[in-house]
Design brief:
single chain; 71 residues; mainly alpha; 73% helix; 0% strand
Length: 71
């Protein structure tokens, strides 16, 4: 994921999912240590619901497909 899309993704998590910055930071640290996908880390840690996880993946799919920035 390019830095531009990543920044938009973080903005989406904050504004649309209403995820606190601290929760995002926990997930980012975990991703750095274990190299897992951030949406799954958020769900595994109980930071998002299954419905929110679905919205996140929908956003990633449509955002990436529309911009071709996720390569």
């Amino acid at each position: 994921m390019t830095p531009t899309i990543y920044a938009k993704f973080i903005k989406f998590l904050k504004e649309e999912i209403a995820l606190p910055t601290d929760s995002i930071a926990v997930a980012q640290r975990t991703v750095e240590q274990h190299h897992g996908p951030i949406p799954m880390i958020l769900w595994q840690y109980g930071l998002v619901t299954l419905e929110e996880l679905d919205r996140i993946y929908d956003w990633l799919e449509t955002g990436c497909a529309a911009t071709n920035f996720c390569d």
